[in-house]
Design a protein that fits this description.
The complex is a heterodimer of chains A (387) and B (516). Chain A is mainly α. Chain A is built from 16 helices and 4 strands. Chain A has one domain. Chain B has 3 domains: 362 residues, no CATH class; 62 residues, no CATH class; 58 residues. The chains are: A mainly alpha (387), B mainly alpha (516).
Chain lengths: 387, 516
């Protein structure tokens, strides 16, 4: 089946898989967003316990999606893996440290004799919530603004210094925070994660006091989200982009490249617009019809987020665009053609990707089974496994 | 300006990866083993309807959850360290190595993370059978995770199903099944997961012994011991079999590691095995000699290929060569490796100069069978100048191997003893046996870690056997940066380990709860 596809089609197929995983990850970052709201929405210990447990039943999906995103990127575009992770060392290390802290915090938080104390583990969750969202957003921002690296595959024959990918920035990736477009995307992801988290809490927790606070938080987070998202969006469509000449493969700067990509790929533009409208609809209707609609809002905003981010990923890599551009050496920029795995590997991996719908199905089934009854105070006081 | 790599960067990158791997491997084997033991216990509960079995299941599930979380935390670091600290490696072999990692995520991690939520939170939300299925699927998911990362690791030890593409300067996969089903992959997977089962079983027995020693939860402890001892005995026998086939695999594909495992300086036909010995100082010259050793005649030859009289090469044979047995001197391999690197350099020059004729000629040369088998095969050797650099840390490998084998044998006896005493209902007042069970917990962790030391230190200096030395795989990060992250990881992991142990001890002290 996949053997008959051309190499470029397979590369594009895998960019779509990466885009899908990346966009699903951004949706699932609601867990991180929620972790920054535990003390905002929970004023008593039992309220905070409900909030933590509501997130605690989902944190592994986010974590696993991040791991799979990394693994799939490694498998399909290994040159990105070696260039970005080995180069932007500090950005990725900071993200990783934040995720180590998260992984143990749920399980350890309320266990007696946990060495650091409950508040420390809650702080870990907060740190993960802020860093996980902002830094991942900043890292994805560099897909449009560029990074400082040089790739030279001939270096492998230099016995004394065989390194293929070299980072030119002394800050090892942290220089990305000096670009406000990157920061705007990071902050947009942060506030969006808090919005989705608010709606997720509304969907999964049965508590009137928390619900009342959710409504306020919906407004407080939507305003900054819109400011930062629109900033990023306007910066994106107005900026020069990293275009690849389809014949010579030369990378050049093209005015309004990303705007052109939207215009030249109407399906992608449609997905983007549907996504944005769905996010806004979910937020606005949840706020206006809070009592009757807001429990469903998470699905509109969630699906809208996936569609929007999916479209942004496609815009970064499709239509002859360098998805991981180098501002140090334009010709070192990574494209889906020059950084991918071999045709054989992409073909073999494509068969594995057929499992994705099955995996999505059982995740959905398990999610429903766990969430069919909302979390309430009674469950927290009687259940044998409470975080 | 291209700077030469700092040798200490390679060392610190290794320390960081070793630190992460060692911490990760403290937690993973318990997850692998305990997951199945829990599933078995829950199956008994569902079959019998006896609520005591539900209590037993839930108690071990609590400990499983504490351990699982920290295993996940250390696991994510390992995955991303391939990129952050071994970027050259990630490109050179990403075409092969990345695939198992991605499959691991799609196939195994999601299964594990989805059903573990049902396992912990679904007791009163889903049916008994669905919950039981979730427990089994969590165990299967955990073991599938291990499968794919071990396939990837096995490929590094025995790189099969791949070919070098000189144009892209990397190795590319030619057969997925050769990679996934190589003898090294199968042996590594089976040996590693069964070792995890043993660790899980020893853990259950040891903790149960503590309860018996304290005269608490006697029924719970006895039942736990019988399940764990039966489970452990079966797999401790399996681990001997997989260890034997792993040894043959190592002898065939990694003879230097095999020689280091035995501290074998000069090989011979009908080679004896060192049952136990004390090595003399292993200094700069990397000389291997014993203060004393206890040997079993011909056994090493038998261990290497079921032939009591076969030739087993020693370290000197591999370094200096042995014409009689067709072993090429290491210096000759280095020269041939340099020829392969020079050819790749010439190919790059031809590409840069748009010299199509020369380029095609060199591409054809890389595809030529003779060049592949006689020159490219030694590509990685071309990065070395001193043949002594091809020898791993022999004492560390030797002692680790022997400790692992001695402890592995001890566990067979221990499981048999506990199973016998448990079935005959003679376990209640045997305090000495309880102490054996408790002391076995740290011992099984020692066995588990030493196994990996044999596998990973024994294959030095290679990150990919014969193709890529560790020093070529590293990312160009400053040594200070890696030292900083090393100490950050060390601090965080140690802090979390202390927290985990304190929680575990407390949960054990609390004991099984009366649950719904």
């Amino acid at each position: 089946m996949f053997e008959s596809l051309s190499y470029i089609l397979l590369q594009q197929y895998w960019w779509m898989i990466i885009s899908l995983l990346g966009s699903t990850l951004v949706f699932l970052l609601f867990v991180q967003g929620g972790q920054t709201m535990i003390y905002t929405l929970g004023k008593t210990d039992i309220e905070r316990t409900m909030l933590v447990n509501s997130l605690g039943r989902k944190w592994e999906f986010t974590f696993t999606t991040l791991v799979t995103f990394g693994g799939a990127f490694f498998a399909s575009f290994p040159l990105f893996y070696s260039t970005s992770f080995g180069g932007a060392y500090w950005v990725w290390m900071i993200i990783l440290f934040a995720f180590i802290l998260q992984a143990v915090s749920y399980e350890f938080r309320s266990k007696p004799n946990n060495f650091f104390g409950k508040r420390t583990f809650e702080s870990f969750l907060f740190i993960n919530g802020v860093i996980g969202t902002v830094f991942l957003g900043v890292a994805v921002g560099t897909f449009f603004t560029g990074s400082e690296f040089i790739v030279d595959k001939t270096s492998i024959t230099n016995v004394e210094s065989p390194v293929i990918s070299r980072w030119a920035g002394a800050a090892r990736g942290l220089e990305a925070v000096l670009n406000f477009t990157n920061v705007a995307l990071g902050l947009a992801v942060f506030f969006l994660a808090r919005i989705i988290a608010s709606l997720y809490f509304r969907n999964s927790i049965d508590n009137s006091a928390i619900s009342a606070r959710i409504k306020k938080q919906l407004l407080y987070n939507t305003v900054p989200f819109l400011v930062f998202f629109l900033w990023f969006l306007f910066a994106l469509i107005l900026k020069d982009g990293f275009a690849v000449n389809p014949d010579t493969k030369e990378v050049t700067m093209e005015p309004y490249k990303y705007l052109n990509n939207f215009i030249e790929m109407p399906i992608v533009l449609s997905l983007f617009l549907i996504g944005v409208v769905s996010v806004l609809f979910g937020i606005i209707k949840s706020y206006l019809k809070f009592d009757t609609f807001s429990t469903k809002g998470v699905w509109f905003v969630g699906i809208g987020t996936i569609l929007t981010v999916f479209a942004l990923f496609l815009v970064s890599g499709f239509n002859n665009t360098a998805y991981y551009p180098s501002v140090t050496d334009l010709q070192s920029s990574l494209t889906i053609e020059n950084s991918s795995s071999s045709k054989f590997t992409l073909t073999a991996m494509s068969y594995v990707s057929l499992m994705v719908p099955f995996v999505a199905w059982y995740i959905w089934y398990a999610w429903k089974a766990i969430n069919k009854k909302k979390i309430d105070q009674d469950e927290m006081e009687t259940d044998s496994h409470v975080y | 300006m291209i700077e030469n790599l700092d040798p200490s960067l390679v060392d610190w990158s290794r320390y960081q990866f070793a630190l992460t791997a060692i911490y990760h491997w403290i937690f993973v084997p318990l997850t692998l083993g305990l997951a199945f033991i829990i599933a078995i216990m829950e199956t008994i509960y569902v079959k019998t309807g006896d609520p005591e079995w539900k209590r037993i299941t839930k108690f071990w599930m609590t400990l499983f959850g504490v351990n699982f979380a920290i295993g996940v935390a250390t696991g994510i670091i390992l995955e991303f360290e391939f990129g952050t600290n071994w970027s050259n490696y990630s490109w050179f072999v990403g075409d092969i190595f990345g695939a198992p990692l991605a499959i691991e995520g799609i196939m195994a991690f999601f299964m594990e993370s989805t059903f573990i939520a049902i396992m912990f939170f679904g007791w009163n939300k889903v049916s008994k059978k669905f919950h039981l299925a979730a427990s089994w699927l969590t165990a299967i998911g955990a073991n599938l995770s291990a499968l794919w990362i071990l396939v990837a690791n096995a490929w590094m030890q025995n790189p099969v199903g791949t070919t070098f593409n000189p144009v892209t300067a990397r190795n590319e996969m030619t057969s997925f099944w050769d990679v996934a089903l190589s003898s090294t992959a199968i042996n590594k997977f089976l040996h590693t997961i069964t070792q995890g089962y043993i660790l899980g079983a020893v853990f259950v027995i040891g903790v149960s012994c503590w309860f018996l020693l304290k005269k608490r939860e006697v029924l719970f402890a006895k039942r736990s011991i019988i399940v764990a001892a039966a489970f452990g005995l079966i797999f401790s026998l399996v681990v001997i079999g997989t260890g034997d086939s792993s040894a043959k695999d190592v002898a065939k594909y990694q003879p230097m590691k095999f020689a280091a495992m035995e501290g074998l300086k000069k090989g011979s036909e009908g080679q004896s095995i060192v049952a136990f010995g004390i090595l003399k100082e292993f200094g700069e010259e990397k000389n291997v000699d014993f203060h004393f050793k206890l040997e079993i005649p011909k056994m090493l030859s038998f261990l290497s290929d079921y032939d009591f009289n076969s030739f087993v090469p020693g370290i000197d044979d591999i370094i200096e060569g042995n014409e009689e047995h067709g072993l090429m001197p290491a210096q000759e391999k280095i020269e041939r490796g340099k020829v392969a690197i020079d050819a790749l350099r010439a190919l790059n020059t031809a590409k840069q100069n748009n010299d199509t004729e020369k380029l095609n000629e060199l591409i054809a040369m890389f595809q030529d069978k003779d060049f592949k088998e006689n020159y490219f095969k030694y590509f990685g050797y071309g990065y070395f100048t001193n043949t002594k650099d091809l020898i791993p840390n022999v004492p560390l490998v030797f002692y680790s191997f022997h400790i692992m084998v001695i402890l592995g044998s001890f566990f067979v006896i221990m499981f048999a003893l506990f199973l016998y005493m448990g079935i005959k209902n003679k376990i209640k007042n045997q305090r000495w046996l309880f102490y054996v069970g408790i002391i076995s917990i740290p011992l099984v962790y020692v066995a588990s870690q030493t196994g990996w030391i044999v596998a990973e230190v024994g294959r030095q200096p290679w990150v990919i056997q014969n193709l890529m030395p560790v020093k070529v795989a590293v990312s160009q990060v400053s040594t200070t940066t890696v030292q900083t992250t090393f100490w950050l990881f060390a601090t965080i992991f140690t802090g979390l380990l202390i927290a985990e142990l304190r929680i575990m001890f407390k949960q054990i002290k609390i004991g099984p709860k009366e649950g719904k």
